[in-house]
Amino acid sequence: MPSLSTRPNALRFILALTAGLGLSACLDAESTTELDGELDSELDLPSDAELDASPGSPMQPESGLLPPPPEFMTCTPGDGIDTGQVTARLPDGPNIPDTCSLGAIGLPKGWTSEPLFKAIQGLSVPDGLEPYCLYSYQGVSPSADAYTRLYHRLDQVPGMAKTAAVDCVALSGMSGLDGDADIDAGLYQAFRNNIAAIDSLAGAQLDAVGVYVVDQIAEWEFGSSTPHEHGHNMGYIVRDVLCPDADSDYCDAHLHFEAGLIRTSDGAIDPGIGGGHVGSHVDISRAIYRAIMRWRAQAVDPFVDDPERHAVIMGAFGANPTLSVAADRGAAAALREVLDLVACSGGIFVASSGNANDPGCAANDGPLFPAALANEKSPDAGRCAELGVPELGPAFPVSYGDRPLVDAVAMVDAWDRLPALARDKALPDLVTYGTQAWVPNPTGKMRPQTGTSVATAVTAATMALVWAVEPSLSAREVHEVLYETGYATSYQAHYGLAGDIPVRRVSVCSAVAKVCGKDCPSTCTGAEAPASDGHRGHYHEAVDTALDAALVNDGGEAALAPPVCLDPPGNVLSEPTPENPACPYCDVDTGIDGVSHALNLDLLEAFKSGPHEVLAGHLLAVDVTGSILGRHELTNAQIAALKAASDPTVTVVHFTQPNLDGGTLVFELANGRTAIGEVIVH
């Protein structure tokens, strides 16, 4: 591989009812008992007796209060994804309160208030975001009656209730023969060859560009035990692409993290696990806000000798489109405005198109949110001025209204095919290799990752490298470099402002060489077609060697079953893939007849007992197009054998399937989640 030596016109409020979620310690001094001026009597305010239950008594429905409309109750209390958070946008007007406590209207008893967005490193909140507020209920989780009373208080402010919506936990990470060093080395070689990585940055003239990973961790936290290490893994992949040199400190200084996936699957916050599986729209909007405001603060800090010229923010998460996210109300409106803030700052937000949590089924059509915002144009100069985001100077160029709001990316395998985990009808114009990715890491906890998380991390790192070499480029031009230098696949884009254009696979080397020009020592000649062996020769040799040395337990035949679609209701989480698959090194040996096959299984220890214990599993067999051919169920006896096996035992399960080209292993876990991972066929 080559080497490179005041107030806005529109008042908006975000109301967060974070009952029982451990957020009360964050509240400001401002509380719901404060009244901020009198409003015109024409508002006809209700009394506390009309809207509130008596202190200390259970909340009872009040006569005459109709339930809020469905547009407000986007998820139901107690269904597992209700965080208690509500957002609203208060319109401008002469009788509008000017603080979060709603002035003379007040809040129902038990509620406190604070600003949603805070000043960051001395920078005040942009005018367009300053009016957002966070409301927290002090007590048990809000019931439907509590939401009803709050809704009717908001309804006393003209037009406000029409923009309000409950915030739901909706966004989760998109990644997805244990511990053999040679197998890991083979996967690492395949990863770097398939993305056309650059071996060295020594001697390159690089401007500072910040990469901000919005995920499970706030910074490198090697002592924490975040679920499945997703935040760490994304950082490892970005760092490997940016800084392969052992002596390079480039991304040690310019690789940053913000915690956005901070909740367990039921919407709670558990401070003991050092992170979470999922995040709500409020969590994500705050994390992205912190990231871009940190970047803006360092850009204007006179004591920073080498400020980062640009910011690339990556979000390897997404919300299922069955949630019917409306970006014009609720917490999604806040997230949408924060993404405007990123674009108005000249930054790039790289979004994951998403994985399939039920491969081959209708619920997996289309890109996840916010990647779907690639269909929308970035803000123009007028919108940025309205938001209160001034330019920082000629050293920090901004282009307006000339590109998608987010840069979406999807994944392909080593042969430019769509894995079974790829969502249907969800291809933007860029894809990146995203299967069985592994890179060296200091904790030793990383397992091979399959998912659009991998593609998002590689793309974000590549954009940062292009900008570091040529900082005069605009955000639009950076995207164009990656597209123009990528390898043309056989696919057409399903979404994005550019329309139905060929999809291209990102080549790190080709993109960087494009901007290096004659002074670049790279010998990269252009993006290459996929290798016939997928650059996995070393990996297959290592697997064969490991199997020869392993104790083999013949688990018998799998049970053939028809594929079943779960078709989850619209209010469930997007849980496409836990961050480490349960059997990351499992593979299939194809038979000489091309029909009879052997599935080699070796579960990670964490999936043999405890909350992640495997209860059931099956293999989805796919053909060369990624279409599902059949479902092969593991029997109860086979599952028991897998969990009882000790190293170095490998359990072999036999199955029959014509036209097999790949597969996906799906395991149902004791905690209700699903572990999904690619299976290599050779």
From TrEMBL:
Question: What SUPFAM superfamilies does the database record attribute to this sequence?
Answer: Subtilisin-like
Q: Which PROSITE patterns does the record cross-reference, listed alphabetically?
A: PROKAR_LIPOPROTEIN
Domain of life, per the record? Bacteria
What's an example Gene Ontology biological process for this entry?
A: proteolysis
In Pfam terms, one family for this protein is: Peptidase_S8
Q: Give a GO molecular function annotation for the protein.
A: serine-type endopeptidase activity
Ranges for the Peptidase S8/S53 domain?
A: 278-486
User: Which InterPro entries does this entry report, sorted A to Z?
Assistant: Peptidase_S8/S53_dom (IPR000209), Peptidase_S8/S53_dom_sf (IPR036852)
Protein name (Swiss-Prot/TrEMBL): Peptidase S8/S53 domain-containing protein
Species of origin reads Plesiocystis pacifica SIR-1
